[in-house]
Structure formats: structure tokens, C-alpha cells
Write a structure and sequence with these properties.
The complex is a heterodimer.
Chain A lengths: L3 H11 L9 H12 L4 H11 L3 H8 L13 E6 L2 H5 L2 H12 L12 E6 L11 E3 L2 E3 L4 H9 L3
Parallel strand pairs in A: 1-2
Antiparallel strand pairs in A: 1-3, 3-4
Chain B lengths: L25 H6 L4 H9 L2 H11 L11 H6 L11 E6 L8 H8 L1 H15 L3 E6 L4 H16 L15 E6 L9 H8 L23 E5 H13 L1 H6 L8 E8 L5 E6 L4 H8 L9 E5 L8 E2 L9 H6 L8 E6 L4 H15 L5 H18 L7 H11 L9 H22 L10
Parallel strand pairs in B: 1-2, 1-4, 2-3, 5-9
Antiparallel strand pairs in B: 5-6, 7-8, 7-9
Helix pairs in contact in B: 2-6, 2-9, 3-6, 5-6, 6-9, 13-14, 13-16, 14-15, 14-16, 15-16
Classes of the chains: A alpha+beta, B alpha/beta.
Bound molecules: iron/sulfur cluster and FE2/S2 (inorganic) cluster (FES).
Iron/sulfur cluster (SF4) binds next to helix 14 and helix 16 of chain B.
Chain lengths: 154, 431
């Protein structure tokens, strides 16, 4: 069940646009912010609140890379794999993360501590290579630093 | 490295920066003449004249395509009394290697807001949207606060500065897809749909967001507007050292001593930026190739390094100025692997609408992977060239696919031998 606050926020977001469909992305993000991911149940409820078909929401939810349709970890690690970070060794950082967490890209650790995802250029190319953990950006990384960083996130 | 003396006379975009490079909030912005251009435009210039000034200034779109802004604005239909129209600020910066809009939004947010307000006046728009990339969390906080400040000071809201006009700016944050940067895809996404590009015509100027006339401009483009209004078109043109007017955020990333971005006059050479500002290549490395403006621009080589950075010269050299945030590729980089990385990016970010792009890009990636592992087949290079044609301009719905194959095409042209190296020479004997 969505909370009253979530419902109010979703309805409020409608005011910014000409129609209800336009607030679908915002609505998915509101739910995801509170719950980490967007379940089938949530889609069903958002569709009732916005009075738009569930399939419209499904279609949007599966298109965008930052909407998650499965439970994710408490911390999301996004490592930039675009071309400048590539030249600065992002593939080593990726393997280091996979080894340290014992998961592959797109997976979540069993203890639900981390989810590992690639991301395109974070606009931090002058400080490559870059990763983002939750809302924090880390610059000029090396493999050793990455392992230390993981310790900061429980 | 060059010591930069920033003044409003030479650096219309970045002279606001304070020494500590903190965000320039409204008090500081106003103290230095911020919002004067908006007041001037509001009180003394007719909307059509604002459009003429921008046309006259020669400002070209800074999102990558370089279309003249004033002409784009004049494509918007004349306002009839009741029609609604929109201005969209494209802040969905995701081009690999590009970080100029992020910089402008995070350091000088009010300059963008003022640019949006003046443009809204010119285009008779009362509601505009900033379509911001959702991973730019810092920029989101800063813009939110700046919009709040501008509202408090009476620049946004109802009856702005007692003019009887209303302005609203909505900050819309996306959900992550490179294709949202394409104008019509941006509209689809704003309308809450999958970001599939739309067929043109009709052009957004006539049928845009929610079917209403819509103008879409990049962050850097809009950020140029206040100074053009304040200082005039002659001044703006004279800032440049070449035919393109004004200044541009330019820079170098890659293995250079001081990667970064600077506001520089058009016409400065790539060598000057690389050596004087970015400090040259890291020691022991040589420049092998470079991309002038993001991952979708064709590679150029060392022999092009003295080219002036402007739209037409770079185009004559066989590439595009793009976002003008260049990337240096040093001689330790294997071109096949580099291009594989670039094509993987484009393949992942294809919206999937048309077959050549959806299926062709993963095919290119798989060929490049086998070449990278020296497992390529005899005709792989021909096949890649054929695919470059099939994904070229006019074959697909939008410019994603042609942009994707541009670096590959140029890589084969300049570094063919590296591709040939990837072809398996010894035949495998089946036992
Ligand atoms: S070229 Fe690619 S990104 Fe553009 S519409 Fe076709 S499939 Fe989508
Ligand atoms: S390429 Fe990684 S931050 Fe730009």
C-alpha cells in the first residue's frame, strides 16, 4: 500500500504538467525513493492515483535505467564506464568491485548491502575515473581506494 | 599554464566565478550586475527585437548541433492571445566526455535562470522546463535553491517586477537515458513516455510538448543570452577569433596534465587549449588522436591539432565541433578497444525504435570484441564499413546511429592497421 504522503506527492507532481501521464516518471521516482524499487503492486496503485493505464507505467518503468523493478541493495554503486573513465582504467575498477562484492554487474549482494550498476559519463571526466555511491561522487579512483570506500557503506 | 584574468569584457559566461569557485548565489550575482539584462529586456525591448538581437549576435546552439539560436527562435509561430507555448532547457547532459552544462549549473545557476527568463520574454512563454539529468544530484539541489531565490526576489512568479507577466520555471529531472538529449525524445520523455524520438516535420516549434509550440535550447546556449542583451551584438561578435560569434566552454580530458574546461574564444586552436590550458600530455605520452567534442564526434589525428576550434573548420576536417569538450587519446591506447568501448555505450543507449540501430550496434560491438581478442575474420573490416553505411545518415529515425558510427568510421580511416592486427591469421585446426 502506498502511504498517504506518497499519494499526496504524486498528485502534487501532476500540477507541473498538462496531463497525468507526464507525471508518471516523477510518480515512479517518488515510490522508488521511499521503497528502493518499484513493485508491480506499486505500479497498480500509481495507475489508480493518476488514472492512467498500468501498461503505460510499465512501459516507462522498463525503459529508463534509473527505475528499478527488482529489490536492490541499501547502497547503489554506479561506476562510470564511458570513454574517458575507460582510458583511466574503469575496467579494472569494475573487476575490483565485482571481486570485492562477489557479484556481477547488475546484481545485488546477498546481504543486500550493495547493488552494482554501470552508468554513462557522470560529467566528472576531468577527474576520471569516477564512481558514484548513492548520491556521492568519488574522483580519481584507484583499485585500492575503491576497496577502502566500500568500508564506509554499511 | 595560462593565467586567466576573467572579466565580463572577455568572459561573459564565467567571469562571475569567485576565487573559491563557490556557487554564485543571487546576492553575489546581483551585486555584479546579474538580472540587469532581464530588467532591461523586460522594460525596454520588444519581444521581436530580442529575437532580432539574438539573431544578429550570431549565437549558435551549444548542445552540439550548432544551429543558429535566433533562427530557431524565429521559427516559433506568432503568438495568438490564448495559445500556450513552452521553452525547454535541455540539461540532460550525458555525452561521454562532456561536463560543461554541469559546471554552468553548479557554479552560476542564476545566469541560466536569467537566460531562461529573457528567452521566455522573447518567445512569449510563461512556463518553461529545465529537463535535468537525474544523476546530476548536486546540480538539482543548486538549481532548486536558485529558483527559490529568484522567486523570492520577484523574478519568477506572478506579475514579475509589476509587468503583468507571469513566469514559471519547473525543474524536471529525468530517469536516465542518453537519447533524452535528442530534442523530440526529450519531449516524449517530458510527456511521461518512453524517450523515442518523433518524426520531423512537424517540428517542435509548431507541434512540441503536449502538441504546443515548443522551443528547446541547451544550458550553455541560454546562459549566453543575458550578456548578449546587456553588452550588445557587436561586443559579442568581437569576443571571437573566428566566424562563429562569442566564446565557448572548451577543454581537454584524457591523459593530459591538467584536464578541465575553460571559457575560450572560438577560433583558438586545439593545440593552444591542449598545451596552454591543459598543460600538454602527461609525461612520456604522445597524442595519437583526439575527439573534438564528445563520443559521437569523429576522431582526428595529430595533424589536425592546429585547427581552430569552430563549427565549420572542424567540419571541413571531417569531424564535428560537438560540445567542444575534447578528449586526448594517447599512444598507449589501442584504438580498436577504445572504439569498442564507445560503441558499447551507443549500443546500450539505443532507444530500440529502429532495427539498424537496435541490432546493428550490438553487431558492431561483437565484431570489435573479436578483433580486440585477435579473433577477427578476414572480412570483418569490410563488414564494419558496410555497417557504418547502413547506420549512416538517413537510414535511421534519429541521429543516434549516425553519431554512433562516426568515431568507428574515422578510426578505420586513420588506424586501419590496428583493425587488421585483430584479424586471426592462423587457421584453427579442428581435431
Ligand atoms: S536511431 Fe537508434 S536511438 Fe534513434 S530512433 Fe532509431 S533506434 Fe532510437
Ligand atoms: S567518462 Fe566517466 S565521468 Fe565522464
Amino acid at each position: 500500500m502506498l502511504s498517504k504522503e506518497e499519494e499526496i506527492d504524486i498528485l502534487k507532481s501532476k500540477n507541473n504538467y498538462e496531463d497525468a501521464q507526464s507525471s508518471s516518471i516523477e510518480a515512479l521516482k517518488i515510490v522508488q525513493k521511499n521503497r528502493g524499487w518499484v513493485s508491480k503492486q506499486a505500479i497498480c496503485e500509481i495507475s489508480k492515483i493518476l488514472k492512467i493505464p498500468e501498461s503505460n507505467l510499465e512501459e516507462v518503468a522498463t525503459f529508463y535505467s534509473q527505475i528499478f523493478r527488482k529489490p536492490i541493495g541499501r547502497n547503489i554503486i554506479r561506476y562510470c564506464d564511458s570513454v574517458v573513465c575507460y582510458m583511466y582504467g574503469c575496467e579494472d575498477i569494475k573487476s575490483c568491485l565485482e571481486d570485492a562484492l562477489n557479484i556481477a554487474i547488475g546484481e545485488t549482494t546477498q546481504d543486500l548491502r550493495f547493488t552494482l550498476l554501470p552508468i554513462c559519463c557522470l560529467g566528472n571526466c576531468d577527474n576520471a575515473p569516477t564512481i558514484m555511491i548513492n548520491d556521492n561522487i568519488y574522483s580519481r579512483l584507484n583499485v585500492k581506494r575503491v576497496v577502502e570506500l566500500l568500508e564506509l557503506y554499511k | 599554464m595560462k593565467k586567466i584574468l576573467r572579466t565580463s569584457e572577455t568572459h561573459p559566461l564565467t567571469w562571475w566565478l569567485n576565487e573559491k569557485k563557490d556557487v554564485v548565489w543571487i546576492q553575489e550575482y546581483k551585486k555584479n550586475g546579474g538580472y540587469l539584462a532581464f530588467e532591461k529586456a523586460l522594460k525596454t525591448i520588444k519581444p521581436v527585437d530580442i529575437i532580432s538581437i539574438v539573431k544578429e549576435s550570431g549565437l549558435k546552439g551549444r548542445g552540439g548541433a550548432g544551429f543558429p539560436t535566433g533562427i530557431k527562435w524565429s521559427l516559433m509561430p506568432q503568438k495568438s492571445n490564448f495559445d500556450v507555448r513552452y521553452l525547454l532547457c535541455n540539461a540532460d547532459e550525458m555525452e561521454p566526455g562532456t561536463y560543461k552544462d554541469k559546471f554552468l549549473m553548479e557554479k552560476i545557476p542564476h545566469q541560466l535562470i536569467e537566460g531562461i527568463l529573457i528567452s521566455s520574454l522573447a518567445l512569449n512563454v510563461s512556463k518553461s522546463y529545465i529537463f535535468l539529468r537525474c544523476e546530476y544530484i548536486q546540480a538539482e539541489h543548486i538549481l532548486k535553491k536558485a529558483i527559490f531565490e529568484a522567486t523570492k526576489f520577484g523574478y519568477i512568479g506572478n506579475n514579475v517586477l509589476k509587468s503583468g507577466l507571469n513566469f514559471e520555471i519547473v525543474l524536471h529531472s529525468g530517469a536516465g537515458r542518453y537519447i533524452c538529449g535528442e530534442e523530440t525524445a526529450l519531449i516524449s520523455s517530458l510527456e511521461g513516455n518512453r524517450a523515442n524520438p518523433k518524426y520531423k516535420p512537424p517540428f517542435p516549434a509548431h507541434v512540441g510538448a503536449w502538441g504546443k509550440p515548443t522551443c528547446i535550447n541547451n544550458v550553455e546556449t541560454l546562459s549566453n543570452i543575458p550578456s548578449i542583451i546587456l553588452h550588445g551584438t557587436k561586443w559579442y561578435k568581437n569576443l571571437s577569433k573566428s566566424i562563429d560569434s562569442g566564446t565557448k566552454m572548451m577543454g581537454f580530458s584524457g591523459k593530459v596534465k591538467n584536464p578541465g574546461l575553460w571559457e575560450l574564444p572560438f577560433g583558438i586552436t586545439a593545440r593552444e587549449i591542449l598545451e596552454d590550458y591543459a598543460g600538454g600530455m602527461n609525461s612520456g605520452l604522445n597524442l595519437k588522436a583526439w575527439q573534438p567534442g564528445g563520443a559521437s564526434t569523429e576522431l582526428l589525428t595529430f595533424k589536425h591539432i592546429d585547427l581552430p576550434m569552430n563549427f565549420s573548420t572542424i567540419q571541413h576536417a571531417g569531424s564535428r565541433l560537438g560540445t567542444a569538450l575534447a578528449m586526448a587519446i594517447d599512444d598507449t591506447v589501442n584504438i580498436v578497444s577504445l572504439v569498442r568501448n564507445i560503441e558499447e555505450f551507443f549500443s546500450r543507449e539505443s532507444c530500440g525504435w529502429c532495427t539498424p540501430c537496435r541490432d546493428g550496434l550490438p553487431w558492431i560491438v561483437s565484431i570489435l570484441k573479436s578483433l580486440e581478442m585477435h579473433q577477427g575474420h578476414e572480412n570483418d573490416i569490410d563488414l564494419l564499413e558496410e555497417l557504418c553505411c547502413q547506420l549512416g545518415p538517413g537510414r535511421t529515425f534519429c541521429a543516434h546511429a549516425p553519431g554512433a558510427v562516426s568515431p568507428l568510421k574515422s578510426a578505420i580511416k586513420y588506424f586501419r592497421s590496428e583493425f587488421e592486427c585483430g584479424i586471426r591469421t592462423t587457421s584453427i585446426i579442428n581435431i
